[in-house]
Design brief:
Layout: H1 18-24, H2 31-36, H3 40-69, H4 75-91, H5 102-109, H6 112-115, H7 129-138, H8 153-165, E1 182-187, E2 194-199, E3 211-214, E4 226-227, E5 234-237, E6 240-243, E7 246-249, H9 253-259, H10 265-268, H11 275-297
Helix pairs in contact: 3-8, 4-8
């Protein structure tokens, strides 16, 4: 039995926050109450969002990834990309619908080839930089740092997702997000359940013994996440180091023993194990949990899913 406290975070919908979801679902009531006793209308909206969001997130992530790697995710590109999507919405019936449908998502995803040409040819519509500044002050866009011109890629991804998925004709980004995070999953021991924790993972928040997961295809702002192929999300150990283009798991040998696979704990006591050995074994364990996650969730398709839902350990 879930409670309202279980329903304050939605890691499966990262990088969107609760305010984003409230806006997308076109319901002003508390999400916890609606998920406890969903109306037919709310259930329909939730299922549609649950089906559409991962597809939109993955396609837009693929679009942004080369721009992030080449540091081209700048103000000019964002103003043209959002303008292009909004223009497509105005020319279709998508924005007038109260429920997200698969065919509506297809219409908006038709903008992707146009977005891919930004920088090489002009687009039909561009939002103003003043609008972008307003969104930045409201927390919908975040700079990578005060001294840099680029934006945090995850915030650009959420902005584009909201522009594409929202059914609202006005205020489609929802409320101010300046203090509201997205969430990922954390598993703090082999026998502990997966729980929701805020993203990004700040150094003072990280449990060095924990395993973390997010369905985001890339976590560009934190290179200590390991991105799996085929849009399978990102995983990491809390104890990690990224230097000179190399990611290493730095969980201690004693901590790793608690996570060890059957029949290997005594082997871990060997004083001959070096840092590279520990990294390799930690990665083997991580991949075992990846396999277990997808093996147990791939056939689970509830009409309403609590953010506290995770497969059995």
């Amino acid at each position: 039995m879930t409670t309202a406290n279980d329903l304050i975070a939605f890691p499966q919908f990262a990088p969107l926050s609760r305010s984003h979801l409230q806006s997308l679902l076109l319901h002003d009531d508390a999400l916890g109450d609606l998920l406890q006793a969903p109306t037919d209308e709310f259930r329909e909206s939730w299922i549609a969002l649950q089906n559409a969001l991962p597809r939109v997130r993955n396609i837009l992530s693929d679009l942004l990834h080369p721009l992030v790697l080449t540091e081209q995710l700048r103000t000019g590109w964002i103003t043209q990309a959002v303008g292009t999507i909004l223009d497509h919405r105005l020319q279709s019936t998508v924005a007038s619908r109260t429920t997200l449908r698969e065919d509506a998502t297809d219409v908006l995803l038709n903008t992707i080839p146009i977005l891919e040409t930004i920088g090489r040819k002009s687009v039909s519509r561009e939002i103003s930089r003043n609008t972008l500044s307003l969104w930045q002050r409201a927390g919908h866009l975040r700079r990578t740092s005060p001294s840099k011109a680029g934006f945090e890629p995850e915030s650009v991804l959420s902005l584009l997702m909201m522009t594409m998925l929202s059914r609202r004709e006005r205020d489609f980004l929802g409320l101010s997000l300046s203090s509201e995070p997205a969430y990922c999953y954390a598993k703090k021991s082999p026998t502990a359940p997966y729980v929701a924790v805020p993203m990004p993972l700040l150094p003072e928040m990280i449990d060095t013994n924990a395993l973390y997961y997010t369905p985001l295809p890339h976590v560009w702002s934190d290179p200590c996440w390991y991105s799996l192929p085929a849009h399978s999300g990102c995983w990491r150990w809390g104890a990690a180091r990224y230097a000179d283009g190399i990611l290493r798991w730095t969980i201690s040998k004693e901590q790793l023993k608690a996570w060890s696979l059957e029949g290997t704990s005594d082997f871990l006591l060997s004083s001959l194990w070096q840092e590279e050995d520990i990294h390799s074994y930690a990665h083997t364990i991580l991949m075992a949990y990846v396999h277990n996650w997808y093996r147990r969730t791939q056939h689970f398709a509830p009409s309403i899913i609590s953010p506290s839902f995770v497969p059995a350990s």
